[in-house]
Amino acid sequence: MISNFKVLLMLLLAGPIVFGQAKSDEWHLVANSRENYFGVAMANGQIGIVTDDTPLKTKEIILNGVYDGSPENGISRIVRGIEFLNLHLSINGQEIKSDNITNWSQVISMKEGMSTTSFSFNKSASINYTILANRAVPYSAMAIVEITPLADIEIVANNYMIVPSELKEAKSQFRVLKDNQYMMPVFGTTAKTLTGKYTISASTTFLFDGQNEALKQTGSEVGFTKKLMKGQKYRFAIAGGICTSKDITDPLNESERQPIYALQQGIDNLVNRHKQAWAELWNTGDIQIEGDLDAQQRVRFALYNLYSYIRPETRQSIAPMGLSSQGYNGHIFWDSELWMVPTLLVLQPDMAKSCLDYRSDRLNKAKQKATIYGYKGAMFPWESDDTGEEATPTWALTGIFEQHITADVSIAFWNYYALTQDKAWLKSEYKVLKETADFWVSRVVKNDDESFSILNVVGADEYAQHVDDNAFTNASAKEALKNTIKAATILNEPIDPKWIAVSEKLVIHTKNGITQNYKGYDGQTIKQADVNLLAYPLHIITDKAQIEKDLDYYTEKIDKKDGPAMASGVLSVLYARMGNSDKAYAYFVKSYLPNSRPPFGVFSESANSNNPYFATGAGAMLQAVIYGFGGVEQTDFGLKYNKGILPKKWKSLKIIGIGIDNKTITIE
Is 605 marked active-site? Predict the structure, then answer.
């Protein structure tokens, strides 16, 4: 049997997998092949616009925090929006289609949050089509078209909108508004979500360099006709926005204000504001790797996606697939607190805080869930939507029994305090820690030897159902209780003696010197890291010899075929902290390479799935860089900066904008 580590070394020796890319650099991902295409979300934390390989078209638009019932089973699902940036373009009477273009290429600019598709048509023109979700103006987006005529041509350009099948009662209108002598053409579509819960409205207009063209409605499209001279570049844009009644009382009129605002701003001003907003993010949170371009691209791409999926102060969190798809119904899992928040906490604390605000706002629903199942305190749902109620499909046992999520939430809250040392914030949010602590003391059972157990759970290893004393569940509960006691001490709040008793005597089983995955575990294949999480990100197992034993044992137990990406990220952190740079690097590469999909290397959840973009995996991979190679460590008193360790391939690692004081560290 070939060991897991040898397989990883073989993978590394094979070299990086290149997906039809040419001329990529540290900020740009370039594709020149449309085979097996997986798109990238151009997202601004509010809307995610997924690229397509079809010219002048987007794949879909995802609306953050907007949920309605799915037609399959009624379980809530994140809503797809009206696709409002699509264009039909004809040149000399012939429409541009997917099968009549040549020289196709697509560039993702991670630095600027833009996607540009280029192609040639009939030896008559070369065309660039750029889309962006404006980072500075959260409900708006643009598609910019640049045409270079290779001969005298006539173009007909029409904006059309696609209404997803899950929306209903769609109505479109085109009208020209007038303020004094200023004419404002606006094209829009309004629809209802499946159950009628929300109204969605999208509106657009055309922006031109120089003289405006007269717009005309033709059926369900709006556009213009223009003659272009050979060699004279021509640029125009479709600009507008999408609003919903979840956020805005009157989404129709507000959506119409988006293109009207764009008309006053112009193409360049809107683009420059968007670029500036992205530049500010990179200036306050970036990772630079010297000597390994592939790793640099992957790390930047992971950061780009995490940053794209959330905005500070929105009180929203991040779903496993972010704003790239409806994967996992767009629900919020432990993925946020355990896998994504730790990266955001270091590089973008305000984004991390938004994820915590999301939970704080839904504390009462967590308390209701605890009551429903006969417990005290707060019991957070395994899958959460906008309501904060349990949103897991009823057939999945995780919705009732994967309860470590309650501890994960509490730990994330403590970690934010530990980073910021903000006592005023801790006082305002202490109720989250207290209520989750109360849940755990009501959830445990007392054993004959005065120890405590947690019976009948699904742990982080979801292959094991209805198990007792799952290692990660018990350990995360212990850590959450200990953190609550620390918080109460800081705030001079009363400490329940039961918190102390349970935190000290909640059992974690061992057998033959190995920490048991759960009581009675006997070497079965596990879905993902469970026991190894007790050493990182938890602080329950700190003895180096025990950490090494558990690593040696469980790295061979993790599902090599279908295990999700996160385990490899954690193993990389642990091996880096143990001083083993070869194994740390091998697992770092394994955390993304087998899961990469063409042409840009978007993350899929596992090596054998095709459900990108898996933001959870990106978070784990970034933790390997920050908390592993970078030597950063979370403590109760802020971040600690250890020596760090570099893979042999890397010349240096620089992490920019760490913590609340924007510290920069360099490992050489």
Answer: yes
**Single-letter amino acid, residue 22:** A
- The span from the CA of 345 to the CA of 352, in Å, is 5
Return the half-sphere exposure (C-beta side, CA atoms, 13 A cut-off) of residue 415: 29
Judge whether 462 counts as a catalytic residue.
Answer: yes
Q: Among candidates 667, 460, 473, which has minimal Cα distance to 576?
A: 667
Q: What is the separation, in whole angstroms, between the first and last Cα of the chain?
A: 37
Select which of 112, 429, 435, 605 is catalytic.
Answer: 605
CATH assignment, 362-523 = 1.50.10.10
User: What residue spans in the chain does CATH classification 2.70.98.40 cover?
Assistant: 33-255+272-282
**Cβ neighbours of residue 193 under 8 Å, at least 6 residues apart?**
66, 68, 79, 166, 167, 168, 199, 200
In the chain, CATH 1.50.10.10 sits at 362-523
| pTM given for the model | 0.95
Q: pLDDT tens digits for 64-123?
A: 999 999 888 889 999 999 999 999 999 999 999 999 999 999 999 999 999 999 999 999
User: Catalytic one among 26, 462, 548, 633?
Assistant: 462
Q: Is the pLDDT of residue 17 over 90?
A: no
Query: The domain 33-255+272-282: what is its CATH number?
Result: 2.70.98.40
In b/e form, how buried is each residue of 273-300, taking b as 16+ CB within 10 angstroms? ebbebbeebbeebbbebeebebbbbbbb
